Amino acid sequence: MTAVLQVDSVVKRLGGRRVLDGVSLDCVAGRVCALYGNNGAGKSTLLQIVAGVMAPDRGAVVLCGESILGHHVRGRRCLGYVPEAADPPAHLTVAELVALTRSLKQAPPLADDLIARLGLESLRHKRIGQLSLGERRRACLAAALVGDPALLVLDEPTNGLDAAGIELLLELLRERVAADGTALMATHDRDFATAASAIELRLVEGAIQRIGEDEDCATG
Length: 220
Description:
alpha/beta; Rossmann fold; 28% helix
């Protein structure tokens, strides 16, 4: 199967410590990959590099056949990213956040039924700074879904969500998998990862270890 995401020999040092030590990872269409690891293991660092937010010291990241490093922007249009803090600029309204993402991706608007499913109809004109963590996470998820990206990158996706929000996120992931979408998430919530039928990986001492065997996610 063709890899949607290819991470090749990524190295990153932070504060004099080698957080990522030659990480390689392939994720294919129609699968969810869950990344575990202790606090400080480098999960968020790896996701930020995959999302194009942070540059590696060495290595390559290719999404849908396009590099996302440097000034290459076409590959970044193939992803949607929800960081752990879910903290876009506080002065933006939910509608403005989604509109800004649409403009950057040159993408069509989100369907009204998706806005409704995310519980954002009554929050469209509220500023991000006025929202709870769960509401901010839903708003960021809406922005991440703009353009129907091939890859969703989710950092601790269940943080701040109530039971209904978690079930909705599971539904969206299952729908995306059924449509050959791909997701990479860092999480401490193994029950959620199991419910999402995720391939399980662990980041230890800067390298990825696979939990169990699965040919749809190569690691190094």
